[in-house]
Design brief:
The chain is about 30% helix and about 15% strand. With about 850 residues, it is α/β, with parallel strands linked by helices. It folds into 4 domains: about 5-280, TIM Barrel, CATH 3.20.20.300; about 310-510, Glycoside hydrolase family 3 C-terminal domain (Rossmann fold, 3-Layer(aba) Sandwich), CATH 3.40.50.1700; about 550-675, Immunoglobulin-like; about 750-845, no CATH class. The strands form 8 sheets. It has a 6-stranded mixed sheet, with helices on both faces. A 4-stranded mixed sheet has the order 7-6-4-16, with no helix packed on it. The chain is built from 23 helices and 26 strands. The chain is globular, with a radius of gyration of 27 Å. InterPro entries: Cellulose_deg_GH3, Fn3-like, GH, Glyco_hydro_3_AS, Glyco_hydro_3_C, Glyco_hydro_3_C_sf, Glyco_hydro_3_N, Glyco_hydro_3_N_sf.
Length: about 850
Amino acid sequence: MNLEELSVEERAALLSGGSEWDSRGNKRAGVPSFVMSDGPHGVRRQLGEGDHLGLGASKPATCFPTAGTVANSWDPDLAEEMGRALGREAHDLDVNVLLGPGMNIKRNPLCGRNFEYYSEDPQVAGRMASGLIKGIQSNGISACPKHFAVNSQELRRQASNSVIDERMMRELYLTAFEIAVREAAPHAIMTSYNQINGVYAHENKHLLQDILRDEWGFDGMVVSDWGGSNSAVAAAKAGGSLEMPSPGYTSVRELIAAVKAGELPESDLNARAAEVAKIAQLTRFEGVGRDDLLRDDIVAAHHDVARTVAENSLVLLKNDAVLPLRPGTRLAVIGDMACTPRFQGSGSSKVNATREENLLDELKACAGVTVAGYAQGYERQGAHNPALVNDAVALAGRVDVDAVIAVVGLDERSESEGLDRSTMAMPQAQNELIAALKTAGKPIIAVLVAGSPVELPWLDDGINAVLYVGLSGQAGASAAVRVLAGAVNPSGHLAETWPLRYSDCPSAGWYPETGRDVIYREGPFVGYRYYETAHVPVRFPFGYGLSYSDFTYSGLSVDGHSVDEHSVDEHSVDERGVSFVVTNDSDIPGATVAQLYVAGPAEPAGGVLRPARELKGFRKIRLGAHESKVVHIAFDRYTFRHYDAAAGAWRTQSGQWTLMVGTNVEDLPLAAPVTVPFIINDDEQTAPAAPVDTGSGNAGLHDAALADRALGHYLTGDVTHVTDAEVAALFGHDAIPSSAPSKFSANDPISSWKYSKGFAARTIARTLIRREAKIREKTGAPDLNVLFILNMPPRAMSKMTQGMVDSAMVDAVVRIANGHTLRGAGAFIAGFFRNRGANNRLAKELRS
């Protein structure tokens, strides 16, 4: 049966979920229901109805390294191998759509969800995601990259408005998604919770239709983040296909009414229903055996894959000739995380791992080294405990100890969905432990566990080596030991900059934004784009990583000319780009990451504002001892372009550009000039920029003098002194951060009720805030349900309660927030019975 032969009611029903994780099917049209599941680094197939935050039990699955760690491999082929394993497990656990990968740009190191995201750079994020997507979808499973788009903080994540100019949005925050859509063709994509320039992502026509569908050619399903839909009708008009989780029948009723009133064209309804039905058909597994639990051989094989991914993603940050460990080394192993591992973050991505390793046991099993003893060293939750430090120092000072392995990093409270980090510092108890261990006079090797950068005040004083393992998945401990012992040569490179201190970050002064409007006033100067332009020293530059091998780069040529007789890398093709020779000068086989950066022409009058240099390509190169290879990195549509918002087009600035090649953004031994334009997409037309609709009404901000002052700040890299008014003048924003609201709306988060004049609303908010803090202190982990409620605006109640709450009841809740407790409560009760009756009538009609 053709979908258009279904009734309006039946078609409208396809546009929202049937439960927490299932879509609605339609037997008459042959559209099966399909199952969606997190996650980006492991299948979180929940038992029973489940909950979207993953607090309930889930089936065992392989926990691979998180995206922030996998990105350090700079190896899309490795990501594809991991994706194939993920897709196989999704298939075997009856999952049709896997919700990942996470692709948002790391604007600030304190974002609580950074461990789920790849990089501060769209090239790394886009190409790593493309590999994972291809691997997942090779199993007939749909990948679903997220969160589209401009989603950079967890605070107020469902009630914030990202105010950003069109050029920065496209060049920095959308390019990763563009690469993934064009290269890997994901079948689905998930929208973010936030507004973009005043319009919710799931109903943002400029984002979903103009850019995603019309420009990039995406023809799949757009699903809301769980509770992230605002208006079902607006979403259907704009290109949003599916609301999740089940909003009951409230959204269906709204869609039916809009079609009957002529507010929603049936063509839009039909298009959205077809997108949902297409996913159901693409991921259909009729007659194929699928297991309730993973088979033992799959568990074993995928544990090995997880180890391989981790081995290629660990980053050697420092090595004063103490690694790899010499045969016979006697070790003191110190640190709570050596015994009780932390290998993933908190939140909806948390996986019930099939196996679990710890560094202490893996070191004990490692041939060639001896564990002389273990000491806890610190309280995991950061409490000061001198006795633990003294025990650790005593162990390190023993005569039968040659070196110390200190496992330190961030605890479970520090990195979580729903909660941004409060500091870039490590727990002070661990810093004090490191300082105390130096008194033992033994070589100290720090194994660093964290999904994001941390400040390292002790790095330059008595620490001999640092191995950054990130959040390396269930096989991360054995991978780390293999690197420490020399069985694996480390080859990871950082996919984000590590600043010396948090105050050096360009957005440190205004992150996270506590009000509604999150103004991206740092412009394009995020991560290394800022540090390189402003000449700010960093702890570790973007792209940095050490090896047990030594590599040299030579012979740079442009457009394939002057390549000598060395063997050609397997990726080389006859296309425009740069070629160069990489040589392994050591006796040890190893791998390096060759990186291509470009710098635009010197600023002429009316020139293009851009960072000092930008990554435009990379290649992971594996070389035997003393082997050389010619490496080719091709130019593509992204190499020289910039977005001209006034023209609504991608342009290439003519003039002399500089091409640079090396191992990180600061170490670029090869450079060559090239004259452009000669690139592909100089006149690629796009949709005009959407107007900024923030509702702030701040007229008179567009002042030429302010714009000139802002431009001066940007050209010198002085981002931290740019004011909101200057940003508004330069980029056309018409918003300033909002203070505590005097009157609450359906889009203000529950947390903001702490300012309410109404006793009931104020008490609810403050009680929840105190409860979450108390539970986090007691358990050492955030209370995700309470955090979700605090960040949730009342409008989400109509999306997260299986249809028990409709928009009229939401209005009643808002009355309570504004101090009209009795009137609001009465309207809510009356609305409950009215809504239940309407839902029952529609359910009966659909069944018939």
